């Protein structure tokens, strides 16, 4: 659980409230939507997956950059509201990639529903098939001698 301070419309003093990370949907002042989270991060023994909702961004407005062991994801979009105002949407996330991840396996793709998915594979044992060499049998002639 995460503790955070909130104010409600009836009281001006902050009240501490305990919520889980997935329940936090804060809004910045005058922001039309909730503040984006870190995304869903899944770690397994085989690798990791990060899923971020980037529905409000076009593919060309999103940048995914890997520098050493730091994965940086950002996006920026400007929209005209029609009444002479401009709305700017932006986000930036940074993730430290663990040492046991093959950096050359990190890939990203954007789904039709606006979810950016990034995965990478961990170093470790890989299952490999090994061919077995079997020598051919030698032709051995056996002779049997019977004693009467």
From TrEMBL:
One of its GO terms (cellular component) is nucleus. It comes from the Eukaryota. Residues 26-139 form the SHSP domain. Pfam families: HSP20 (PF00011). GO terms for molecular function: unfolded protein binding. InterPro entries: A-crystallin/Hsp20_dom, Alpha-crystallin/sHSP_animal, HSP20-like_chaperone. Residues 1-39 are annotated as: Disordered. GO terms for biological process: protein refolding; response to heat. Belongs to the small heat shock protein (HSP20) family. This is SHSP domain-containing protein.
